[in-house]
Amino acid sequence: MFGVSFVSYVAISGQVMEKVVKEAREHPDEQVVGVLLGGQSGGTITIEDAATGAAESNSTHATLTGDSIAKIADDIINKRIRGSIVGWYHSHVRGGVFMSETDVETQLKLQQFSPLVTALVIDSKTGKSGFFRADSKTKGAIPIPPQNVRAEIAAPTPVTPPFGQAMYPQAPAPTPPVTVSTRTILLVVLLITLAVTAGIIALAYYRGPGTVSNLAIKHTPPKGPFRIGNTITFDANVTGTDLKNVTLAYRIIERTPAGDLRVGDLIKVPMLLKAAGKDTYSYTIPSSEISGVYVNYYISAFDGSDNVVRSDVYNLSVGDFDWTLDRTDEVIVTRTIAGEVRLDLLPFNNFDLPVAIRVGSPGPPAGVSIRTPSPVVPGEQPAVLRITATGDADIVRRYDVTIEAVYSPGGAVQFIRPITLVLTVTDFSFDIQPRYNEVKPDHEAPPYTLTLTVNDGFRAPNAFKVSITGLEKLEDKISWRLELVEYKVDDQGTAKFNYNLVFKVESGAKKDLYLFTVKISATTTGGTISHDISNVQLKII
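^ that's the sequence the OP posted. Answer follows.
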């Protein structure tokens, strides 16, 4: 089997996307189907054209006619259509943008034949679309993240991964656009047709292998709203002679931490009679399993002659939530100055219940406290964290703190959405040496060495301010200045400034021992912070 994992991006012409979406919207009650054409360069599939033709279709299946197949093949061979076959597209009349079992089977067959094939699914009601591949191991659909898809007005160009780095594994070396042979084109077109026709074949099979069956399913999808952690009950009225069993088949579609959709395994469970002598069968999915944003399902029934009937495939929206920080890099907190961080809770599928906010593990460093708000309803207001650090809190750089949003629908079930808060606790400090000096009138005292240490992460828009108090009795008989001697930054990002603090004493100054205080202050975004050293001595002799 050819691998497809290295094909990570899709670039599609805006005109082509508009064309296929328009085609789907113009046929809201029947499926449309066609092929996508273009090429591959490196890790990007480029779609430059789409081809379709007369088709036999209804709300559940579509297949191109033989004449349409022949025309598409002839157009490709004679280069009236640009590119090689790189995918297929079809619309869904109901159920939204997803891959049904038949779709997945089609995609898997095509991937075995060609590593280029990508499926484009369009909701004919809304015009929404999505690109998919399939996992041969799990037999599930793999949505291509929207950020990996680009539609352009001009001819599409390969998508460049952010920051020049591959987000997914790439091929060992860039490959030139793939050219597919005439025989391959014909086979792929035929395979697409046969695979899409599988919907018809499957439907015939479900109605029985050549025997008369009176199996019938009447089912109305359960009414929401549905939320994570709630049970969902499915009822179906099933009739038929020699009924053997009734089965509910469902998948849970979840959001990944990256915001993509992940399709779970297909789970099949027996539905049981609600009451003896009746025709209503039921099954309830436990609350612990409802952990995603969609439930995709169908119901099937079997009789003793191996006849099978299946309902439509349905898609239920499930309310869920996620959240995001208003800062993507780090939160800087200066000791003794309180800071605030906003976290926006995002509702999905109309989720509207309170969510608790708490500090998880690992928690903040020593000396740092985080005050969390009362429960917040996603989408209504942000969650504001108030962070304070004491004067002796640990100085840390990019320290990971876990903040959790917790939804408890009842019982033992909890849904926890963690987010990492990258925290830096910073400050500055200084020292003066020596603490005693002597000076004669009309002279300069030997310099004091003032060492200013600024920890990594400290942000002060304006310069540090130095003030000296305690020498007021000398009035205009004394003055001072700072002279920068040395500046350096160590491996931890800590900056050190060495200054000479020089006093000049004028004639007539009273001889005495004077005690003074040096204060250094800086204004940060959260407020002003200052440190001082007192009882520094200067004796006039």
